[in-house]
Amino acid sequence: MWFSRATLNRLFLLALPMVVSQGALALMSFADRFFLSRISPVHVAASLGGGVSFWVCLCFFNGIAAYGNALVAQYFGRRDMRSCPRVVTQGIMLAVVAMPLLLLLAWPMLSLFEWMGHAPELVALEKPYFLTFMSGGFFFLVKTVLASYFSGIARPRVVMIADLIGVFLNIPLSYVLIFGRLGLPELGIVGAALGTVIACILSIAIYLLFYFNPIHARRFHLRKSFVFMPGIMRRYLRLGLPSGFEVLIGMGTFNVFLLMFQSYGVAEGAAMAIVFNWDMLSFVPLMGLNIALMSMIGRTVGAGDMSRTNEVISAGFVMAVSYAGVMGLCFVVFRESLLRMFATPGMDFSPILAVGAPMMIGMATYVVADGLILVCSGVLRGAGDTRWLMVASVSIHILTLIVQVFVIRVWQLGSLVSWYVFVAMLITNALLYLWRVMGSRWRHPERLARVMLE
């Protein structure tokens, strides 16, 4: 657990723009749900169910696309500048292939809301929110590919700039579209989703301005990058598919759990949406640290120099645990005040508060576990240990979902019992990942050499 100040500074400078970027995206979703809470608790609950269902459909392809960060970092560490933008070309090709598959997934997903026993008024809002997001699925994938590229070449400020501009557009745009201001029609929950899609397209435009900058284009031989490269595509799929499958099972089981939990009632569903809104503000910035660690470890793998890996990992643990500990303390001390921020004017908030307050305590318990999970997964993905991550994550999530089916459907236990089973799963996941990182198999020279093979 020793690290030099220089290592901590390098990780901090790389992670800070990514933390700001991911925090901005969390703020965007936070603002949308806050605006929707001004309409009704049903709108807040629907935004969680519909939004998570969209990310379940997208997450497999998005998980593959996001692995471009490690691929680019590995080529960048090897000083193979020509291959870095070729990863972007392969990623966009994958996004084109993914779009028709996403549209095919949309229709069976629509029936899932009713099958889970949601109230009719909830289903009526979840469906249009989900479909609006699905219509912009291609743009979200392209944005992930471009963000991963700039993270991989150690230019996180570009990601920060693009995301901040997107958020600064999204928040007022969503307000206008939700409530029908400036002569526009009042779109309600559809306006929240539409504003996010438009903001995503603007962020892509910002990325492309940096991508086609003449200085950047010459350094990375951009003109010769717009070709299909079988070797790079094979690496993308060989290392990215386990990541995509891991995220798919994780998000899929989480979505089924969430939809089952919402069958407890509107108050429970709204309480979960509010709690996860605050959870997102603590979790998503840690994703910035995860991306930074993936990039740093990827560059050491590409350069064939793993000598300072332990310093990077230790610095990552200190940053994650310190941040998560402070956030967890805030969630416990200010739990009722944080919940009341989403109270709909003129409506009785006490049923939501009764469920949400103990849930906030549970969330404070697992935020440190989230930090450990993200540090460990960033390190292992950067080193190409995606197959082990897939097996471990899939096993834990499927086991947890089976337990939740018994808790909610078979034994019909209370909502807080189900919630604390979820908390226990996250803590178990963190301990398993920590065990892997503290071992040595993932950093064996022969295994790392196979990671670089095309």
UniProtKB/TrEMBL annotation:
UniProt cross-references to CDD domains, sorted A to Z: MATE_like_7 (cd13133)
Keyword field contains Thylakoid: no
Localization per record: Cell inner membrane
Domain of life: Bacteria
Alphabetic keyword roster: Antiport, Cell membrane, Ion transport, Membrane, Transmembrane, Transmembrane helix, Transport
UniProt xrefs under InterPro entries: MATE_fam, MATE_MdtK, MdtK-like
Lipid bilayer topology: Multi-pass membrane protein
Pfam families hit by this protein: MatE
Ribonucleoprotein in keyword set: no
Transmembrane region(s): 42-67, 87-109, 129-151, 158-178, 190-215, 236-261, 281-301, 313-334, 354-376, 388-411, 417-435
NCBIfam families: matE
Name this polypeptide is given: Multidrug-efflux transporter
Origin species: Congregibacter variabilis
